[in-house]
Structures are given as structure tokens and as C-alpha cells.
Design goal:
The complex is a heterotrimer. By secondary structure, chain A is α+β, with helices and mostly antiparallel strands. Helices cover about 35% and strands about 15% of the residues of chain A. In chain A, helix 2 packs across helix 5. The radius of gyration of chain A is 15 Å and the shape is globular. Chain C is about 30% helix and about 20% strand. In chain C, the strands form six sheets. Chain C has a seven-stranded mixed beta sheet with strand order 9-10-7-17-14-15-16, with helices on both faces. In chain C, helix 4 runs parallel beside helix 5, helix 11 runs parallel beside helix 12 and helix 15 runs parallel beside helix 19. Classes of the chains: A alpha+beta, B mainly alpha, C alpha+beta. Bound molecules: FE2/S2 (inorganic) cluster (2 copies). The site of one FE2/S2 (inorganic) cluster (FES) has 12 residues of chain A, from loops. One FE2/S2 (inorganic) cluster sits at the interface of chains A and C.
Chain lengths: ~150, ~425, ~750
């Protein structure tokens, strides 16, 4: 069936075999995006996070047919004029990635906070980032990156 | 003001007039204790107090969102306005640091604070009044061992006449029954212990028993089901409709872990209760389970069997089925009786079988995050992922597929209410 | 089998099309382009060409058998080579873990990548440089020691001509043996090594342009998903294919012995089909009762005793009078818990197998796949593609075996993406570890004897049997391979009588493998905690006790302890602290190790906050002093230390797999919680750089110290000793109640 989707500002028609396909797989396999990642498929880890109408959302538990006309933004969509945005750059400057598998989700989650609250406290950052898991132990660097983007 | 509010106000004023006549409302202050007064530091007593505090769920009302434990300030919504839980840390000015054990005991038993002011029954002294001196002493020792936190709690926001404390004395005339619970010799010691905890410190009835217009528990329909923060506190008596009848063993497991595979997970306010009971004496939890199980006597009633996989529905709109397969079935899959995140077959879920959709709607919207750091049942919040229409349609689909109960009529209004209560950001 | 031809197909190809481009840009995984380059390239450890190639533009390609598991060693290796050759760092690229192109430098584990692999490559580069200078000397008619190299250009200091590496060797091979005597550069002249040079992959990872194994695609590829038995050892009885009739995109249900899988057109179809396929299995109960795990371990048959140290006569010393101390420690079973479940793609072309995976040991994987498929090693090529961090031997090899089996059966390339439950349930586990310790203290307060017994499975590092091979009843090595778990059972402290024995057990409940700091973490937990029990018995300051029993000649070790005391503002006193009152109490604990007694020195101090009634423990702050010799890239070392601390606080405080008699029951993050942001400790790290010393590993040593530092801190705060990892509140409560 045909599904129309607005991803990173671009509307497109996509063929999906199964209407229950979660957005994550459509973004990765049909649109070839590498930002959103599969980590658990259960809404437990945040690796798949994207913004849906500006809200950080687990794309692994959102059937593509339920997205409707809501705007989807992935890590790729945060880029500004082909350059990393302030938060992405802060992660780069802090080298806030080890394997980096969780990082796309971390950025999407953190961006959602900064959009609402440009200068969050440490506590607010920790609380807001609580849903996202990292196994490499990059948390400290991630905190530094978010704070760098917040004050910058 | 609604008509109901007007009647209430009238009733209250009536009582008030009586009271002032009888001077009932007046209670003396109890002298403050010095800040450095010697407090009981015996670890056994303190640990016992901690376990009782867990059973009493004290921390949850007396801790503000993300605030320091027991420092109060949490808003407790009531039909009469908002009451702010008090600071129970031993801070002299803003907590109970100047309270003697006597003063603490009077608050627990009679609902009167150290200065002699009437306390609102949002503080369930109508239950705590049953607590023994030993238990009150242990609780007091535990609270006094907490770090003192200076925290001035906001003033209550109550409409006239409820903002006039003395009327509470009238409320007590009607609803505070100080009689101790004499053990029932025909029942086991465990059952009696359970009753003591459930009727007393556990104050289960505050949520699970319906309340009358004046906010008192309807003793004639004890445990027939009540409400808590928008959630439905299911009936604990025989009137509860479940897929499997609760046994004491199942209740004990559920109460201490927040989950049982034949019933589902404790969500909303009950999640906090379960988390606390996990920290309480497991003998006490067993006793509680034994007593509660006895409220719905009899054995498993034969019921229209719903297969674990639910009924086969042919008439459902494709988009709703897609949402179910893409969002819900990831955990509530029917290949295993327990899926990821300890998801149970929805055919077993109590929330899905209740007469109102309050809990089904809220668990879908708010998810279950209470056990996230320690591990336990989990469900992502869909309030931000699915639209109201989608939530409504999938909740109704689940009700139709997994129960033999009539379709809900209140789903949309429950969703609207849940949104107001503040769904996930 | 039911094949659906549907509009989606066109679209999938469109999709994959895009991805194929993506991956062929990422040259490290463009197998086909490299095939040509591969012709005749040596991979033996004694050849310079094995490690290095310089093309006609002066671009340097490094062939590394060690791979970057997200640890940042890629840039480290490139720094080493650029430094030795004096070429611009930007001109150096790396090809890793490709069995056709790269040497077998052993698996990427044991915190040895720079220490071993990097040094082999440095020696090759030094040899190459010297050879190039010889040629240049001839060309320029200058004396070799008159030549200088900058940016790959060789000039005679005395003036005269210039010649570039490209001109000398461009595109040709060196045909040189690695010269162990070749003089490596004097660290005093380093310009690149030791500098905090940013990793190149991080910008790509922040912009979605990086290709992980999980992103990797080949044209015409199908997706596979394996349906695991509900219990280890259960046999497949029947499969009801009709149960997935209405799942769109199913190509085939594959059944091979107890190996049951679905092959589909899309990844989601594989997920759904695997979830919905109904199969019946026999009952199987091979696991011990978890509640009695430690009795089980203790009663498991011992096949050998490895005596890892035997100094003096500990038995005699224990028999003399004095204060006897004994304690038993245990350490739970852990899963690797990679955030990205294992993934692999396999393809057969004219009888030859190519398998892409994030395996840390592609050369071993090649042998195992060849064995499983009964084909010669030479016909198997395994290529490393970066995955999510694996921290040891997790499921990547098994996913590779799944994909290989399915690719063979389907005669098409197949990608297998493990589910979260596959990863938590079927990755090999860090085995349960049980440790008894005894010590004797004489009247004058000297420790006269130390004895320890470790109950750990037999075997060493090696090849962990592939799940698919076992399920389909194909050849396996059939040996336990838990990793080098006897390491750090011996201790470095100078007690007169020491005996440390590892009882190697015949079996262990789960297929074991190495997880970050295997054995060293468990063993050091027991050793360094028990040392504090001795300190407490002596009413001695724990840090001072460590100094007292450290070899006075070991200056580097003593410096670590000294600097640790300084940065942690360590106040000298015995534990537990005197002034314990109130519910929430604080304390601090120290731990120290010279890793495996021969390399990286680390000292750690952990601060804790303990709620004495609930048993909740917070770890607000951790201090680390770290000496791994020559630091190649301080950012890399720092990141590794942070990861070591944070991951191990998680393992120490929270982690423990759960299981019933048949199978793991902690199959997701809800049942196997790990550390979250709210539990993140603050870190204070001091690096000791020793440019003139050998570089040692930084990927594991710090982790070894975290459990003991925290146990010691809890004891300091409360006087209660927790001897069982994880330190869950109920265990801490029990310890508190028992004092
Ligand atoms: S992949 Fe979506 S939350 Fe883990
Ligand atoms: S950086 Fe590897 S999981 Fe977060």
C-alpha cells in the first residue's frame, strides 16, 4: 500500500507491504537513512528516536500508517545547510561517542529538551535523558556535549 | 460552583454551626521538643519503622515530584480543593522536628497537628488511628532519623467553607472511628495481621472504597472500588471482574513485584504502592495478601473463555489492526504467555476488563515507567506517539478482541481527562 | 513456503539501491573493489606488505587485524603509522579485520590492541621507513643519516635533491621482512603520537553518514530471523507455517534440525514472522535453580586446578597462630548487552562464502564458519564492519553463523538482525564466579598468609561454539572458551606466603565467553575487597596498607597510589568511619591493581552514599589515576576510562541475568536494567603519560577496580560488607541487618 510521509521537510510516497511496519524500518530500509537505529524494537532504549511533530518519539513502536501528516525529523534532518547543527557539533567537539550506536537517539532526545528549554540544569538534563540507554558508558561525555550546546 | 459543591458547602456550614456550639473543634497544642532532643536511634526500631512507612506508602504523598524524600509539598487533589502534603523530615521550622512522639501519635490517631490544628483527612488518620503504639513509635523513630530538609510547603487551596479547619472536627464525628481492631479469634494470625495492616497503616480503603459526597469512605460498600488520581482503584471484593480469580499467592507476588502474569502490572498510583511493598517485610505483604484475598471468597468462577490470543475479529478496520500489530503486539505477543517488558496477554489484563476504560486509557497514554531503574514491568507512553483517535480506536479494539465485556462508552472522555491530568511531555 | 510478489519489491530494491551506494563509499567494507587489490597481498606477520601499502599518490593504507570496536583505536593506529613514516595523518587510512587483506593479529580483546597489534604495525612502519631511506640515500646520493622526512617527502639536510615515498614505492610492494631491530622513532621527536587527535568516525556518526554493520546491505539480499527454542536444549517438534500466512513478505520457513528460521523480503516481515510463527518444542531443563546457583557452582566437578601463584608455604603459615580471616565472594552472570543487537550478512558466490559482521575476531570466525559448513578456510572470507560496542565475544559470530546457514540454503545473500531477546538470551555469558579467601595476621599485625580459591569454568580464550552450528547439529569445537579468566587471581602484594588456586569447573550454566575485563574484574573484586577486610581487622588505613605491601622497587605503582591519595583528598583512617549516624551515610573506598601483574597501573577511589534502611546505594563520584605507559591519544584513553567506570558501576550495582530451569528470563532492558543518566557518577581522571615507556592497554584495567572500590566504600560508610555482585538494595539491606 502507498503511504505518504513527511520526513526531514520532504514529502514522499512510499510503498509498504505491511501497514503495521514501524516507522523505523521505513526510514532505514525504504529511505536509506542511517540516523534512526534498531536497538530493541520495544520502546525501551531510545536508539530509534526521531521527532514526530517536534516530539522525541520511539520510531520502533510507531506504525508508519499511524504517522499521518505529522512531520518526521531524523538525525539527518537536524543538519543546517549541510552542516551539523549546534547540538550535533557539540557532540562532535566533545567526541561524545564511543561506538556511537546510541548517539542518534541521544541527540534527538536532547534536542527535544533544548527546543523547549535552551538552558536546562544538570538535573533537568539527566531526568530528560533517562529513557535513553548507552552501553559504552558515554553518558558523561553526552552530558558535556548537551551542556556545551546549551550555553554555546 | 456546581450544585453538588453548593450542597456540600451548606452541609458543612450546618455542621460547623453545631460544632462551634459544642466547642469540639478545639484541641490543645503539645509543647515542642528541643531541636537536639534525644531521638530513638535503635537501628531495629528505625528499620521496622521504615518497613511500616513502606506499607503506609508515606513517601509517595509526602514527597514532591523530584523533591527530597518526605519533605512534603506534593499537591493532593480532592473534590474540595488542593491540599499540600506536609514536610515529615525532622526540620524544626518546616518539618516535624519539634514534634514529640506524643504529638506524632495524636496526629496519627486523631488527625490533629502539634499546634492543635485539625488536619484534613487527605491524611488518612481514619485508618492510621488503628496503628499500635509500638508501630507509631517505630514510624516516629524512622522519620526522625531522616535528614532534616528545610521546605516550606505551599498553603492549601480550598474553597470556603472547607478552608476553615474546625469543620474537620465535624467530619471526624462522622467518619473517624477510633475503635481498635480486636483480632478475630476464628481467623488465622496471618489474616488478623493482614487486616490490621490493610485497615490501618496500609489504608487500602482510601482508594479502593468509594467515597460519599463529604469525602468519607462508604463503609457499606467497603472495597467496592474507588478512584486515585484519575485512575480506577479496582474493587477488591467479589464484584471485581478478572480473567483469573486472585489467590493469596498471586496477590503476594503482585504486591511485592508490581506484576503477576495472570493479571498484569501495577500501574499509576498502584505502581508506587507495589514498589514500596517490595521493600516491606515480605511476611507482612503475605498477610496483606491473605486478608485481601479473603475479601472475595469463593473459587474461580466459570467464565466465557477468551483464548490467550484473543478472539478472531474479522470486522476491524485495517488501520487499527495495523496499530495493534505495529505498536502493541511487539510486547503483547501471543506466542509466549509473557512478552517483552513483562507484557501479559491482554486476555488476562484487569485493566481491559474493568467497567470503565480509565486504566486502559491511562496505561496506554502514560505507559509504565515506575520500575524502570530497578527493573520490572515497563510500557512506553503512547500519549506522544499516537493521536487521541488512534489511542481510542486501539483501546476499543483491545476491549473487543480480548474480553467478553460490553464495549466501553467512556474512552474518548477518559482520554480527554488523561490529557488534562498531564500526559507525557 | 509462500512467495509474495508485491509492489513492495520494487521499493525495497530502490531502498537497498540507496544503501548499496552508501556502503560502497565506505571503502573499508567494499569487498569487491578490494578483491583485486588483494591479489597476492601477504597477510603473514613477518611481512611489511602485510601491514602497509603506499600508493602512487603517497596515500598510506594500514592493514590491521585488530579492529575498532568503537574504542577509537583506529585513529590511534593511524597516529602510530603517520608518526613512524612522517606522513600527513590525513593520508593514512585503515582496513581492518578482513581475512583476505589483513593479518591475524589475534582477536580484538584483552586490552591489547595498541599494546600488541599497534606495536607490530609500528615495527613494520619503522622497517618500511628505514628501507625507504636506504633507497632515497641511493637516489639522492646522500648519506642515510643526512636524510630528513617530512610529510612523506625525503630531503638531504645538506641540501640537494628531494624524493617522495610515492616516487620510491608508489603502488609497489616492499617485499620486506619486518625487522625487529628496525629503530623506531625517538618519542622525543613525536609530533602526532600523544596528541588528542579527533576520531574521524565521530562526525559521521553524528550526521547519519556512518555505515554500521546494521546498515550494511548487498543487492538482492533477503532478511532472516531465527526462532530460538524456548529452553536451552529443547528439540523442535512441529511447526505450523499457516500461522504466518497473513504476514506479507515471507519467502521461506527454514527448518534444519533444531534451527528454525524465517526468510523474508523485508526486515519487518522477518520480525513479525518470527514473532508469530507457531512451533512446538520439547521440554528441557538444563539449568540449575537460580536461588541455589552458588551451591551449584561449588558442587560442580573440578577438572583441573591451576595454581596461579605459590609463594612460601601458605598452609604452614595459616596453621601458625594468629588472627584468621576468611570470606566468600560471588559475582553474578552478566550479558554483554550491546545496544545494537548482533547483525551479519552472508553471501555464497561460486562456492565461496563472504560474511560481513562486527566480529572482533574475523580470523577465528572464518575457521568456525568453514568448520560449520565443512569447507576449506581458504573459501571463506570474513570482513569486519563496525557494529555497536560488543565488549567481548557477544552474538556477532552467532549472527554470522545464522546468516551463513540461511545464505547457503537460500542461495542468496541473507542478512540476519538479532532481536533484543536474541541478544539478551543467546549471547554467551560472563560465567558465575565464586571465590573463597583466607588470610592470617600475626600478633604484630603482619599479614603472614594469603590463600584464595576461585571456582571458575575450565578453558581459555578461543572459539565459542556457534549457536546455529549446535542447533543444526553441525561440527563445533566443543570446548568452553570463557577467556583468560585466571588472570589477576594472583596478587602483587608482598605477603610472605601466598597460594592462589583456580578450580577449573567442568561446566557452567551458560555458554561462557569473555566480557570486558573477564575474570580480572571478578578476581580483583574479591582480592581488593578482602584486602580491605584485612585492613579493617588491623584497624589500618586501606590505602596505606596497599602501599605497605607494594614492592618498594615498583615506583610507578607507588606513584599511582600517591597521586590517587592526592586527587581524592584521601584522609588517613581505618574503615569503617567512626561517625556513622542517621539514615543516609557516606563513605569512600579504594582499590588498586597492576593489571595482570605486568601492565597498566590503575588506582580508583569511589565515594558512596548509602541509605541504611532501604539499602539504596548511590555512587556520586569516582576518582581514577591511570598509568598505561606511552599514551597514543589521551582523548581515546580518557573515553575508555570513562566507559570502564560507568559500565562497571552499572554491572556492579544492577546487573544480573535471571533464568528458570530452561532458559534466560531477562530478555530485555526491562528485566535486565542497566545504569541510566540519573545514576551517573561524576568522574575525576588523572592520566600519567610516560612517552618513553611501552604503551599498555586502557580498554579494561579500570573496570577491574570498580566493584571492590564500591564494596570498600559501602563498608567504610556503614560497617557492612557486601560480597556479592550486584549490590542490589536487598543484599545491602541484608548486610546492614547482619551487623
Ligand atoms: S529501538 Fe526503539 S526504543 Fe529501542
Ligand atoms: S556509545 Fe556505544 S552505546 Fe552509547
Amino acid at each position: 500500500m502507498k503511504v505518504s510521509l513527511r520526513v526531514n521537510g520532504k514529502s514522499q510516497e512510499i510503498d509498504v507491504a505491511d501497514p503495521s511496519t514501524p516507522l523505523l524500518y521505513v526510514l532505514r530500509d525504504n529511505l536509506g537513512l542511517h540516523g534512526p537505529r534498531f536497538g530493541c524494537g520495544l520502546g525501551q532504549c531510545g536508539a530509534c528516536m526521531v521527532h514526530v511533530d517536534g516530539r522525541a518519539t520511539f520510531s520502533c513502536v510507531l506504525p508508519v500508517t499511524a504517522v499521518g501528516d505529522r512531520a518526521v525529523t531524523t538525525l539527518e534532518g537536524l543538519m543546517e545547510g549541510g552542516k551539523p547543527n549546534k547540538l550535533q557539533q557539540a557532540f562532535i567537539d566533545e567526541e561524545a561517542a564511543q561506538c556511537g550506536y546510541c548517539i542518534s537517539g541521544m541527540v534527538m532526545q536532547a534536542q527535544a529538551l533544548l527546543n523547549k528549554k535552551p538552558n536546562p540544569t544538570d538535573d533537568e538534563i539527566r531526568r530528560h535523558m533517562e529513557p535513553n540507554l548507552c552501553r559504552c558508558g558515554t553518558h558523561a561525555a553526552i552530558m558535556r556535549a548537551i551542556k556545551r550546546a546549551a550555553v554555546a | 460552583m456546581t450544585l453538588r459543591r453548593i450542597l456540600l458547602a451548606a452541609a458543612a456550614v450546618g455542621i460547623l454551626v453545631l460544632l462551634v456550639g459544642f466547642g469540639l473543634a478545639w484541641r490543645p497544642a503539645i509543647a515542642p521538643v528541643a531541636a537536639n532532643a534525644a531521638v530513638n536511634t535503635d537501628r531495629k526500631t528505625i528499620d521496622h519503622g521504615a518497613e511500616l512507612a513502606a506499607i503506609g506508602n508515606c513517601a509517595d504523598c509526602h514527597t514532591a515530584a523530584n523533591g527530597p524524600a518526605y519533605a512534603g509539598g506534593r499537591p493532593v487533589p480532592t473534590p474540595f480543593g488542593t491540599i499540600y502534603a506536609s514536610n515529615l523530615t525532622p526540620d524544626v521550622d518546616t518539618g516535624i522536628g519539634s514534634w514529640s512522639e506524643e504529638a506524632f501519635k495524636r496526629a496519627m490517631r486523631d488527625g490533629v497537628d502539634r499546634e492543635g490544628r485539625q488536619l484534613y483527612p487527605a491524611f488518612p488518620y481514619d485508618h492510621f488511628t488503628h496503628a499500635t503504639d509500638e508501630d507509631i513509635r517505630a514510624l516516629y523513630a524512622f522519620l526522625m532519623s531522616k535528614p532534616a530538609v528545610r521546605n516550606i510547603v505551599p498553603a492549601n487551596e480550598l474553597d470556603f467553607p472547607f478552608n476553615f479547619r474546625p469543620i474537620v472536627a465535624g467530619w471526624k464525628l462522622l467518619f473517624l472511628h477510633r475503635n481498635a481492631l480486636d483480632p478475630d479469634p476464628n481467623k488465622s494470625a496471618e489474616w488478623n495481621r493482614g487486616r490490621y495492616l490493610v485497615e490501618g497503616l496500609g489504608h487500602c480503603g482510601s482508594c479502593h472504597t468509594p467515597r460519599n459526597a463529604l469525602g468519607g469512605e462508604k463503609k457499606d460498600s467497603a472495597y467496592a472500588g474507588g478512584a486515585a488520581e484519575g485512575w480506577n482503584a479496582p474493587a477488591l471484593n467479589a464484584s471485581l471482574v478478572t480473567a483469573h480469580k486472585w489467590t493469596a499467592d498471586q496477590l503476594a507476588e503482585y504486591l511485592s513485584t508490581g506484576w503477576h502474569k495472570l493479571h498484569g502490572a501495577a500501574a499509576g498510583p498502584m505502581a508506587d504502592v507495589a514498589k514500596n511493598l517490595g521493600r516491606a517485610s515480605q511476611d507482612d505483604v503475605r498477610a496483606i495478601a491473605t486478608y485481601i484475598a479473603s475479601l472475595s471468597p469463593g473459587t474461580e468462577a466459570a467464565k466465557a473463555a477468551i483464548p490467550a490470543g484473543g478472539k478472531v475479529l474479522t470486522d476491524q478496520p485495517a488501520d487499527v489492526v495495523a496499530i495493534y500489530n505495529g505498536a502493541c503486539a511487539k510486547c503483547h505477543n501471543d506466542r509466549h504467555d509473557v512478552g517483552p517488558s513483562q507484557a501479559v496477554s491482554l486476555a488476562y489484563s484487569t485493566a481491559v476488563r474493568q467497567p470503565e476504560s480509565a486504566n486502559a486509557v491511562r496505561v496506554v497514554m502514560h505507559g509504565i515507567e515506575a520500575y524502570r531503574t530497578d527493573g520490572g514491568p515497563y510500557m512506553p507512553a503512547f500519549a506522544g506517539t499516537l493521536t487521541d483517535e488512534q489511542i481510542a480506536s486501539v483501546v476499543e479494539y483491545v476491549r473487543a478482541r480480548y474480553t467478553d465485556q460490553p464495549q466501553w462508552t467512556d474512552v474518548k472522555s477518559q482520554i480527554a481527562k488523561a490529557r488534562q491530568e498531564g500526559a507525557q511531555p | 513456503m509462500n512467495v509474495h510478489l508485491k509492489p513492495s519489491r520494487r521499493d525495497i530494491l530502490k531502498g537497498t539501491g540507496a544503501l548499496v551506494v552508501a556502503f560502497s563509499l565506505a571503502n573499508r567494507s567494499d569487498a569487491f573493489a578490494q578483491e583485486a587489490a588483494a591479489a597476492g597481498k601477504p597477510v603473514t606477520l613477518d611481512q611489511v606488505d602485510t601491514f602497509l601499502a603506499i600508493d602512487d599518490k603517497g596515500m598510506v593504507t594500514v592493514y590491521s587485524g585488530k579492529v575498532d570496536l568503537g574504542t577509537g583505536i583506529r585513529i590511534g593506529i593511524q597516529q602510530i603509522v603517520a608518526e613512524e613514516l612522517d606522513v600527513p595523518l590525513a593520508n593514512v587510512t585503515t582496513i581492518e579485520g578482513d581475512t583476505t587483506l589483513t593479518p591475524d593479529q589475534g582477536p580484538t580483546y584483552g586490552s591489547q590492541t595498541i599494546q600488541m597489534g599497534g606495536m607490530q604495525i609500528r615495527q613494520a612502519a619503522a622497517t618500511a621507513r628505514s628501507a625507504l631511506l636506504d633507497q632515497a640515500a641511493q637516489r639522492l646520493g646522500a648519506a642515510k643519516d643526512d636524510l630528513a622526512v617530512a610529510e612523506g617527502v625525503i630531503t638531504a639536510k645538506s641540501g640537494g635533491g628531494r624524493v617522495t615515498y610515492a616516487e620510491l614505492i608508489g603502488g609497489k610492494s616492499f617485499m620486506l621482512k619486518v625487522d625487529p631491530a628496525a629503530q623506531a622513532k625517538n618519542p622525543a621527536d613525536y609530533k602526532i603520537v600523544g596528541k588528542p587527535i579527533p576520531r574521524r568516525d565521530i562526525p559521521e556518526k553524528l550526521t547519519g553518514t556512518f555505515t554500521y554493520m546494521q546498515d550494511f546491505r548487498v543487492p538482492g539480499m533477503l532478511h532472516g530471523s531465527v526462532i530460538r527454542p524456548p529452553a536451552i536444549g529443547a528439540t523442535l517438534q512441529s511447526v505450523d507455517e499457516s500461522s504466518i500466512e497473513d504476514v506479507p513478505g515471507v519467502v521461506k520457513v527454514v527448518r534444519d534440525g533444531n534451527f528454525l528460521a524465517v526468510v523474508t523480503e523485508t526486515e519487518w516481515a522477518a520480525v513479525r514472522a518470527a514473532r508469530e510463527l507457531k512451533a512446538t518444542w520439547s521440554k528441557s531443563e538444563t539449568l540449575p535453580d537460580q536461588a541455589k546457583l552458588w551451591e551449584h557452582v561449588r558442587s560442580t566437578k573440578i577438572v583441573t586446578d591451576d595454581v596461579t601463584s605459590n609463594i612460601g608455604d601458605s598452609a604452614a603459615a595459616m596453621a601458625t597462630d594468629g588472627k584468621k580471616i576468611k570470606a566468600t565472594y560471588d559475582f553474578a552472570i552478566h550479558t554483554h548487552g550491546s545496544i545494537g543487537p548482533s547483525c551479519a550478512v552472508a553471501e555464497f558466490k561460486d562456492g565461496k562464502l563472504t560474511c560481513w559482521s562486527a566480529s572482533q575476531a574475523t580470523h577465528n570466525l572464518r575457521k568456525q564458519l568453514a568448520m560449520m559448513m565443512k569447507m576449506p578456510d581458504a573459501d571463506v572470507r570474513c570482513i569486519y564492519v563496525d557494529g555497536a560496542g560488543c565488549y567481548g565475544r557477544n552474538g556477532h559470530e552467532d549472527a554470522a553463523a545464522d546468516a551463513t546457514l540461511l545464505a547457503k540454503i537460500m542461495d542468496k545473500p541473507v542478512r540476519v538482525q538479532w532481536s533484543r531477546a536474541d541478544e539478551h538470551g543467546w549471547d554467551p555469558k560472563g560465567p558465575p564466579t565464586l571465590i573463597d579467601l583466607r588470610a592470617n595476621i600475626d600478633a604484630s599485625g603482619n599479614v603472614t598468609a594469603w590463600e584464595s580459591e576461585f571456582f571458575i569454568p575450565q578453558g581459555a580464550a578461543g572459539m565459542v561454539d556457534l549457536v546455529a552450528a549446535t542447533l543444526s547439529d553441525r561440527p563445533v569445537v566443543g570446548k568452553l572458551a570463557p577467556g583468560g579468566i585466571v588472570n589477576d587471581s594472583a596478587i602483587g602484594y608482598k605477603f610472605p606466603n601466598i597460594k592462589t588456586v583456580c578450580h577449573r569447573l567442568e561446566t557452567t550454566p551458560f555458554r561462557p565467553s569473555w566480557i570486558r575485563t573477564p575474570g580480572r574484574m571478578q578476581n580483583t573484586f574479591a582480592n581488593e575487597s578482602f584486602l580491605d577486610e584485612i585492613a579493617a581487622a588491623l584497624k589500618a588505613d586501606p590505602l596505606e596498607l596497599r602501599v605497605k605491601y607494594t614492592d618498594p622497587a615498583d615506583k610507578r605503582g607507588l606513584e599511582v597510589l600517591d597521586r590517587l591519595a592526592k586527587i581524592a583528598k584521601w584522609e588517613k583512617r581505618a574503615s569503617p568511619r567512626k561517625d556513622i549516624k542517621g539514615n543516609v551515610v557516606t563513605g569512600r573506598g579504594v582499590s588498586y591493581v597492576k593489571y595482570e601483574l605486568v601492565r597498566t597501573y590503575v588506582g580508583v577511589v569511589a565515594d558512596v552514599e548509602v541509605d541504611r534502611t532501604s539499602g539504596d546505594v548511590r555512587v556520586p563520584k569516582v576518582y581514577v589515576v591511570h598509568d598505561c605507559g606511552q599514551i597514543i591519544n589521551p582523548n581515546g584513553v580518557r573515553a575508555q576510562i570513562e566507559g570502564n567506570v560507568i559500565q562497571t558501576v552499572s554491572r556492579t550495582m544492577k546487573e544480573e541475568i535471571t533464568f528458570d530451569r530452561g532458559m534466560v528470563t531477562s530478555l530485555d532492558w526491562a528485566s535486565y536494567p542497566i545504569l541510566r543518566f540519573s545514576e551517573l557518577p561524576e568522574l575525576v581522571i588523572e592520566l600519567i603519560d610516560r612517552p618513553t615507556e611501552k604503551p599498555w592497554g586502557a580498554g579494561e584495567p579500570t573496570a577491574a577496580l570498580i566493584p571492590s572500590a564500591i564494596s570498600n566504600a559501602i563498608f567504610d560508610a556503614t560497617g557492612a560488607r557486601v560480597r556479592s555482585v550486584p549490590f542490589k538494595p536487598e543484599k545491602v539491606r541484608a548486610a546492614l541487618r547482619s551487623i
